[in-house]
TrEMBL record:
Organism, scientific name: Schizopora paradoxa
Bilayer-spanning residue ranges: 12-31, 63-85, 91-112, 145-164, 193-212, 244-263, 283-305, 311-329
Biased composition (Acidic residues): 42-51
GO molecular function, one term: aspartic endopeptidase activity, intramembrane cleaving
Higher taxonomy: Eukaryota, Fungi, Dikarya, Basidiomycota, Agaricomycotina
GO cellular component: cytoplasmic side of endoplasmic reticulum membrane; lumenal side of endoplasmic reticulum membrane
Principal subcellular localization: endoplasmic reticulum
Membrane-topology annotation of the record: Multi-pass membrane protein
Subcellular location field: Endoplasmic reticulum membrane
Compositional bias annotation for Basic and acidic residues: 372-394
Protein name in the entry: Peptidase A22B, signal peptide peptidase
Recorded family membership: Belongs to the peptidase A22B family.
A single GO BP: signal peptide processing
Region of interest (Disordered), residue spans: 30-51, 340-400
Entry keywords, A to Z: Endoplasmic reticulum, Hydrolase, Membrane, Transmembrane, Transmembrane helix
């Protein structure tokens, strides 16, 4: 009977926990309450609407995703092979350091708001920063007071990442990578389940080809030194002698977007007016459970065959099947498939648009699971103001 490698199992459990927590928190980060009627709105509601500004990934985008991803991956591979990894790592270090500030800041604000509660958070003063040049608005920021004090804290990981490139710890990599994942899941959203299925299916084939068909994925993943993966030491005491177990950021973000869509659909079905109100989450629970089971399957196969596995090979079918199984069991497949997520308009706004005869405007890299060496190398708010003319003054002019 073989001895149980508790050090290795603890690293699997650590990676599984980080990925699950990231998908769970990111899903709730993408959840926004429906807008109130115009005559009931407050500054707090405008603030909430501003947070919902983000891209919706459409079906046509999903079809292009694997192609764009393949082109980028192949480009990185050619650079690594013919020019070496030094220059691309230098560029990626600065790229992720700059954008990492915003991601870590967003994540820190989300954690702080969750800890103090949404109601308490909205009692803090709003700080506005505007930079104007002549008639041009160069910069306009609006934030709660605690957010301002959190900004210096958000700079620290990026500063360490730049100033001490040879001491990039697993903790630093995880902080930045998980912050990126939270930001993407909060702002980057899938519009329909059809789009989600197309995206997962396309990246399913993408992963199989680039991992099993060529050496491209493994070569790029082991050459790039950037916070695009999460790491956990293969040790109960977090020693790094045996290296790390790793999970690519794409294996969190891509299926995580599908899980987040399921949560938003559950909220939409519940007809709740506030996200703090409890509501049934059958689709979210099913999708999140499928994600966990898919990840466990990935790690089991990897452990059994002692080889890195393309996680989306297991995660994509698991998430897609969870949706169809839940929808069919509840007799809601047609309704769920036809549902589309997007910025909602209040009834008052829609009525006003019809009255004024205006057309309403319609707003619209996966890696592998594997191991890394002991150094960690892998195998907002914007407010607008409407200025309306004084109707009384117009009436006086007409009478005159």
């Amino acid at each position: 009977m073989t001895d149980v490698d508790w050090d290795l199992l603890s690293s699997y459990a650590g990676i599984l926990s980080l990925a699950t927590i990231s998908v769970y928190s990111g899903s709730y980060g993408s959840l926004k309450a429906p807008p109130k009627p115009k005559d009931q709105r407050t500054d707090d509601d405008d603030e909430d609407d501003a947070e919902d500004i983000g891209d919706r990934l459409s079906t046509s985008d999903a079809y292009m995703f694997p192609l764009i991803g393949s082109a980028m991956l192949l480009g990185l591979y050619l650079i690594v092979v013919y020019l070496g990894s030094e220059w691309i790592n230098f560029f990626l270090t600065w790229y992720f350091a700059v954008f990492g500030v915003g991601s870590v800041w967003k994540c820190a604000i989300s954690i702080s708001r969750t800890l103090v509660g949404a109601r308490k958070w909205k009692t803090f003063a709003i700080v506005k920063l505007e930079i104007l040049k002549a008639k041009w608005e160069i910069l306009s920021l609006s934030m709660r007071l605690p957010s301002l004090f959190l900004f210096p804290l958000a700079v620290v990981p990026s500063a360490i990442f730049i100033l001490y490139p040879d001491t990039k710890s697993a903790i630093l990599t995880n902080v930045m990578a998980l912050s990126f994942a939270h930001s993407v899941l909060s702002f980057g959203k899938i519009d329909t389940f059809a789009t989600g299925c197309v995206l997962l299916s396309g990246l399913f084939l993408y992963d199989i080809w680039w991992v099993f068909g060529t050496e491209v994925m493994v070569k790029v993943a082991t050459s790039l030194d950037a916070p695009i993966k999460i790491l956990w030491a293969k040790s109960l005491t977090f020693e790094t002698k045996r290296g790390f177990t790793m999970l690519g950021l794409g294996d969190i973000v891509v299926p995580g977007m599908f899980v987040a869509l399921a949560l938003r659909y559950d909220f939409n079905r519940s007809k709740r007016k506030a996200i703090t109100e409890p509501f049934a989450k059958p689709y979210f629970t099913s999708a999140l459970t499928a994600y966990v089971l898919g990840l466990v399957t990935t790690m089991t196969v990897m452990h059994t065959f002692k080889a890195a596995q393309p996680a989306l090979l297991y995660l994509s079918p698991a998430c897609i099947l969870s949706f169809f199984a839940t929808a069919l069991a509840r007799g809601e497949l047609k309704e769920a498939w036809a549902w589309s997520d997007g910025p909602e308009e209040s009834k008052d706004n829609k009525t006003a648009a019809v009255t004024n005869d205006e057309s309403p405007a319609v707003a619209e890299t996966a890696l592998t699971v594997g191991s890394a060496d002991k150094d960690g190398h892998s195998a907002d708010d914007r407010e607008g103001a409407e200025h309306e003319g004084d109707s009384d003054q117009k009436m006086r002019k007409r009478k005159g």
